[in-house]
Automatic annotation (TrEMBL):
<keyword id="KW-0378">Hydrolase</keyword>
<dbReference type="InterPro" id="IPR038765">
    <property type="entry name" value="Papain-like_cys_pep_sf"/>
</dbReference>
<keyword id="KW-0833">Ubl conjugation pathway</keyword>
<dbReference type="InterPro" id="IPR028889">
    <property type="entry name" value="USP"/>
</dbReference>
<keyword id="KW-0645">Protease</keyword>
<feature type="domain" description="USP">
    <location>
        <begin position="230"/>
        <end position="551"/>
    </location>
</feature>
<dbReference type="InterPro" id="IPR029346">
    <property type="entry name" value="USP_C"/>
</dbReference>
<dbReference type="InterPro" id="IPR001394">
    <property type="entry name" value="Peptidase_C19_UCH"/>
</dbReference>
<dbReference type="InterPro" id="IPR024729">
    <property type="entry name" value="USP7_ICP0-binding_dom"/>
</dbReference>
<protein>
    <recommendedName>
        <fullName>ubiquitinyl hydrolase 1</fullName>
        <ecNumber>3.4.19.12</ecNumber>
    </recommendedName>
</protein>
<comment type="similarity">
    <text>Belongs to the peptidase C19 family.</text>
</comment>
<dbReference type="Pfam" id="PF00443">
    <property type="entry name" value="UCH"/>
</dbReference>
<dbReference type="InterPro" id="IPR018200">
    <property type="entry name" value="USP_CS"/>
</dbReference>
<dbReference type="InterPro" id="IPR002083">
    <property type="entry name" value="MATH/TRAF_dom"/>
</dbReference>
<dbReference type="InterPro" id="IPR008974">
    <property type="entry name" value="TRAF-like"/>
</dbReference>
<keyword id="KW-0788">Thiol protease</keyword>
<dbReference type="Pfam" id="PF14533">
    <property type="entry name" value="USP7_C2"/>
</dbReference>
Length: 1166
């Protein structure tokens, strides 16, 4: 501690609000895992003497929860005389503990706090003698006591990791000064500090920091440096993914198998095998935590998916399935099954006759019950428990043996080399009607023998002994929690904790005892009580997945993975990416030293087919018409820039001249004047350029066509003096020429010319003929010219007019075209120009340059996509078209119809939602332009969420005109009871009936006819309740557009029953009948049938099986809003209980809610 920098203050001081409360840091926040205060027990301290150091040590240094090994115990007592006259800060004498120097630090009247005494323990190293990376874990107590009456004392205890940065630790509010002096101490007859003197004893226990992170604050912690391993970054809620990936990574044989998947010809970020290879390679070579974004993106996950915690077991299975697919057809095809898959037999074996029914299946993991079992071996025994089938539950053993007593169960045929055990920590609580986490204590061994759970005929040539390799942990409850993993990378050696981006060594206690779950236990073995409540304090963390490796296969599974095992193309790709990153980093660091120069050359201008001279936003690697880009030092002279550009163009620098490009008021960018003085720097030239709107210097590159006898360039205008400064400009003006080719429907830059202002427009014709290598014009041909003033202003030039009169200046653009000399076309006569034709054909083909400029102004690149629900994407894949925004709806249909080879009258278009990219509304067929379809009137004011560059299309079975005679009905088809729903949009004639609707549905869904598979039923539902059944004669025009229409096959038992009173409406709800969900339906009642039998029919009718059906509670629900549901028992008879208009309610949670909220089943795409 530096007294001069921080007089009277301890930089790492602890503040104690009360002697029996808690230790907090100076900012008032609670210190986690740093200090523990053990308040004195009055009963014990009545007979305890501060001078009895051994007894006092046992009292103040209680056993620690971590149970670290004690390296050294020392007690040091410092006597303070003349307490009131002590300086503001006082150091005690040096003493040694654990081989390191220590001392007491005292602030007799408080460390920046009033009416307090502050006492700390600090190391005693000299400031420059502290070892680098020094740390020492210490449990300590500071005792202030009356030296003449040692039964009067006060103490605080704590523990701390002392480091070079955190050199002291203790208690800012050790004790109030008013209690120390002149006041009788508690139940005694004298004060704590008597005669202005007292003793302070420091009890210092140095403990072993076995893992290197005991009480570590993890500031500037380097996982790679401390452990040799790195963690994985958490993207949002991907800790569950990280724990599984680390487990698979350290299953070395799996990692080698992943490396061997052939991805050299598919290095695509959508290929999950390739991204998993990349992830493993980075874990192997990186010095910092590795991101998983590439992998999750290859899974097809969006942002919302990485903020949703998924089931690790399901993720593991799907990942294995995906990697198996990638290995099919290669020599790796059987690697994963051999490593992770075992075999299990499900059997029913008769007791008294030789008959057995069995089925052998593969398994990739085993789900073990935690509830009701104390440990792993109990769970295995529970798993293979035999159920006896006897009495009313006898097994039918075929016609030969009939009903027989039998044993039913499962037995393992073999276990895999790597055994994944899923502990069922989450189970459905029928009382709470919700999933709950089971926090019971559940032990698992470091090694176990699996042979007792094998079939008697199983291969036992090798021992079936397994060794623990990984423990995946969940901390928290069902709704919020965190996942991390403990893994043992090598056969022998340390365990490590992988907690997202942090990797630390771990003790066996941390791996086993602390993840058994159950209540916290004190160091003495007693259960820690929950403060203020009955019952113990439960651990939030417990193991939920265990990874065991067969001991005889440990060397095979944990084989070393070397650089030679990693794919060469993977190493090469990472070397390339590293070099590119380093280049970008260097470029960023030096960015302030450089300025970009964008240069238009003759070559780029000749490639340019739009307005102006170039598009400055384009890049040369994507557009040959883009300006050339040069990165030059800001301090470089313009002479250097000219030399660099000249070298790039393979020209003599003397023949190259740069013109500054400026923004004109009409929003075009044209050359203004040449840079004649090349002495200024690039930055100075850039600064002087008027009204630049670019981060780069924009120039046009002119190459001299003539040189004089001395080899110097001859410039047509802006000639130079000897010092390089420009002289006055002559009367020549610089013009750029563009040619419109009507055959190719293209605009092309030709070059530049210098022409005198007084020359007439028609005198440009010989220059154009020469530039174009045209020998002569036909007798009926003319050359027509326009000035390109700005994109929406193209004006014809009159042949007899002078350039000066036409107001042409440096940088102006003239567009020309060869045309037939017809009266409908304007030539160089003074008759003006004609406007573009308005008919549809003129929008497809420009007859002259002016029409083409109009097309450029209105052209739109539109992405057409097949409607996801109404169009076959394989038959009609997506495409793009460049279209004129002025074309009308019918012409748009014709163009798209030509592209798709379909009748344009059979096309319907839909606008696109800009947020979701899903279809919005259908486009009405009316006299509107493409521009108005994509950008409706008042688009900005209405803030419409619509894309202006895309449309969905649907190929109809009929014309739009015929469609107007149809009614569209959205219909939900039920199958597999009511568990499977399919949506169909059915078009039925408006004068049709429900029978017509059924015929159209069967045809569209490709279902068997009613004669073959049974009659269909159509009914309407509202708010998840049955509304009405529609008769076959019901007119479809009367079907409510806002009701949900359901179609289903009529169950065979319903077909012959015509009396509606024999049916009851069934609906689904959760807890309250008002909280409806799912599909309702009608159900046939049977007179005298007990509800136990009714449930069997309901199970078949609904389509739910097993536990899903067992969780449903059934109730009779009256129509009145305030009546409570009457829940049914197996002995009830529904026929007798249900009255007219009553409903049968199915009370169970809405399992589809997460789907509606946007979270669906876990999926991996890539």
């Amino acid at each position: 501690m530096d007294d001069l920098q921080n007089p009277g203050a301890s930089p790492n001081a602890m503040v104690v609000d009360g002697p029996e409360e808690h230790v907090v840091e100076p900012n008032g926040t609670e210190s986690e895992d740093v200090a523990i205060i053990n308040p004195p027990d009055q009963m014990e301290t009545d007979t305890l003497l501060a001078s009895d150091y051994e007894a006092m040590k046992a009292h103040v240094l209680q056993p620690l929860p971590e149970e670290p090994r004690i390296l050294d115990d020392q007690v040091h007592t410092w006597t303070i005389e003349n307490w009131r006259t002590c300086p503001k800060k006082e150091h005690g004498p040096i003493f040694y503990a654990g081989g390191y120097p220590w001392r007491i630090l005292l602030f007799p009247f408080g460390n920046n706090v009033l009416d307090q005494c502050s006492i700390y323990l600090e190391h005693g190293f000299e400031p420059n003698a502290i070892p680098e990376d020094w740390s020492c874990c210490v449990q300590f107590a500071l005792v202030l006591w009356n030296k003449n009456h040692p039964h009067i004392f006060f103490q605080h205890s704590a523990h701390h990791r002392f480091t070079k940065e955190e050199s002291d630790w203790g208690f800012t509010r050790f004790l109030e000064t008013r209690k120390m002096f002149n006041t009788v101490w508690e139940n005694y007859d004298r004060p704590l500090i008597e005669n202005d003197s007292a003793n302070i004893s420091a009890y210092v226990r140095v403990v072993e920091d076995e893992t290197g992170v005991l009480w570590h604050n993890f500031n500037n912690y380097d996982s790679k440096k401390e452990t040799g391993y790195v963690g994985l970054k958490n993207q949002g809620a991907t800790c569950y993914l990280n724990s599984l990936l680390q487990s698979l990574y350290f299953t070395n044989a799996f990692r080698k198998a992943i490396y061997q998947i052939p991805t050299q010809h598919d290095e695509n970020m959508t290929n999950s095998a390739y991204t998993l290879q990349r992830l493993f390679y980075q874990l192997q070579t990186s010095n910092t935590a590795v991101g998983t974004a590439e992998l999750t993106k290859s899974f097809g996950w969006e942002t919302r998916h990485i903020f949703e915690q998924q089931d690790v077991q399901e993720l593991s299975r799907k990942l294995m399935e995906r990697m198996e697919e990638k290995m099919k057809g290669t020599e790796l095809e059987k690697v994963l099954p051999e490593m992770f898959s075992g075999k299990i037999k499900t059997y029913i074996s008769c007791i008294n006759v030789p008959y057995e029914s069995s089925r052998i299946e593969d398994f990739w993991d085993v789900q073990l019950n935690v509830s009701g079992n104390e440990n792993l071996l109990d769970s295995f025994q529970d798993y293979i428990q035999v159920e006896k089938l006897d009495g009313d539950n006898q097994y039918f053993a075929g016609d030969e043996y009939k009903l027989q007593d039998a044993n039913k169960g499962v037995i393992f045929q073999s276990f895999p080399d790597v055994l994944h055990l899923q502990l069922k920590r989450f189970e459905y609580d029928i009382q709470r009607d919700a999933m709950m986490k089971i926090n019971d204590r559940y032990e698992f061994p470091e090694e176990f023998d699996a042979s007792p759970y094998l079939d008697k005929d199983a291969d036992r040539s090798e021992p079936w002994e397994y060794q623990l390799h990984g423990v995946l942990v969940h901390s928290g409850d069902l709704n919020a929690g965190h996942y991390y993993a403990f893994l043992k990378p090598n056969k022998e050696g340390w365990w490590y904790k992988y907690d997202d981006d942090k990797v630390t060594k771990a003790t066996k206690r941390e791996v086993l005892e602390e993840n058994f779950g159950g209540p916290y236990k004190l160091a003495n073995g007693q259960v820690r009580p929950l403060a203020g409540k009955k019952g113990p304090l439960m651990r939030p963390n417990s193991a939920y997945m265990l990874v065991y490796i067969r001991k005889s296969r440990l060397d095979k599974i944990l084989c070393p993975v070397t650089d030679a095992d990693t794919p060469a193309h993977l190493q090469r790709r990472f070397e390339e990416e590293y070099a590119a990153r380093e280049a970008r980093r260097k470029e960023r660091e030096e960015q302030h030293l450089y300025l970009g120069v964008k240069a238009i050359t003759e070559a780029t201008f000749q490639q340019h087919g739009a307005t102006d001279l170039t598009n400055f936003d384009a890049t040369p690697d994507q557009d040959p018409a883009a300006p050339r880009y040069y990165r030059v030092l800001r301090s470089a002279s313009m002479k250097d820039v000219v030399a660099q550009i000249a070298a790039d163009l393979d020209q003599d620098p003397k023949r190259v001249r740069l013109w500054i490009m400026v923004n004109r008021q009409n929003k075009t960018i044209r050359p203004d004047q040449p840079i004649m003085d090349l002495r200024p720097t690039v930055e100075e030239t850039y600064t002087r350029a008027a009204a630049h709107r670019d981060q780069a210097l924009r120039v046009w590159v002119e190459v001299a066509e003539e040189v004089n006898a001395e080899g110097n360039p001859v410039w047509p205008t802006y000639g130079g003096l000897a010092n390089g400064v420009a002289v006055v400009k002559n009367d020549l003006i610089l013009l750029f020429l563009k040619w419109f080719d009507p055959e190719a429907q293209a605009l092309k830059g030709i070059g530049h010319v210098y022409v005198g202002k007084e020359r007439k427009v028609e005198e440009l014709i010989p220059i154009i003929m020469k530039k174009m290598n045209w020998e002569k014009l036909e007798s009926d041909e003319k050359i027509q010219m326009w000035e390109e003033i700005k994109p929406n202003m193209i004006e014809a030039l009159r042949g007899k007019q002078s350039l000066k009169a036409a107001e042409l200046q440096d940088g102006d653009i003239i567009c020309f075209q060869r045309i037939k000399d017809r009266k409908s076309k304007l030539s160089l006569s003074d008759k003006g120009d004609r406007h573009p034709a308005d008919d549809a054909k003129s929008l497809d083909r420009a007859e002259d340059a002016r029409e083409y400029y109009d097309f450029l102004l209105n052209k739109r690149t539109v992405a057409f996509r097949p409607h996801p629900q109404k169009c076959d994407a394989e038959a009609y894949p997506p495409f793009e078209m460049v279209l004129n925004g002025k074309m009308l709806y019918d012409r748009l249909s014709e163009k798209v119809g030509e592209k798709l080879s379909v009748d344009p009258t059979h096309l319907r278009f839909y606008t696109v939602n800009a947020s979701s990219n899903n279809p919005r509304t259908a486009v009405k067929r009316q006299n509107q332009t493409l521009h108005n379809i994509l950008v409706p009137a008042n688009f900005a004011q209405l803030n419409m969420n619509q894309r202006n560059d895309a449309l969905f299309f649907e190929v109809l079975d009929m014309s739009l005109a015929e469609l107007d005679t149809k009614k569209s009905i959205r219909l939900t088809l039920l199958s597999e009871g009511i568990t499977k729903e399919e949506q169909f949009d059915i078009l039925v004639p408006k004068n049709g009936q429900v029978s017509d609707l059924i015929e159209c549905l069967l045809k569209k869904a490709k279902l068997p006819s009613e004669g073959e598979a049974g009659p269909m039923r159509i009914y309407e539902i509202s708010n998840h309740k049955f509304f009405r059944e529609l008769s076959r004669e019901y007119p479809v025009i009367s079907i409510n557009d806002y009701a949900t229409v359901i179609a289903e096959r009529i169950p065979p038992e319903d077909v012959e029953v015509t009396d509606p009173s024999h049916f009851i409406a069934v609906f689904q709800y959760h807890v309250e009948p008002s909280r409806t969900h799912g599909i309702p339906f009608r159900f046939l009642l049977k007179e005298g049938e007990k509800f136990a039998d009714t449930k069997k029919r309901l199970e078949k009718r609904i389509g739910l099986k097993g536990k899903s059906f067992e969780k449903i509670k059934f109730a009779v629900v009256k129509r009145t809003h305030f009546s409570r549901p009457q829940y049914l028992t197996d002995d009830d008879i529904l026929w007798d209980l249900a009255e007219q208009d009553d409903c049968l309610g199915l009370d169970h949670p809405d399992r589809t809610r997460s789907l509606r909220n946007g979270t669906g089943d876990l999926f991996l795409k890539g």
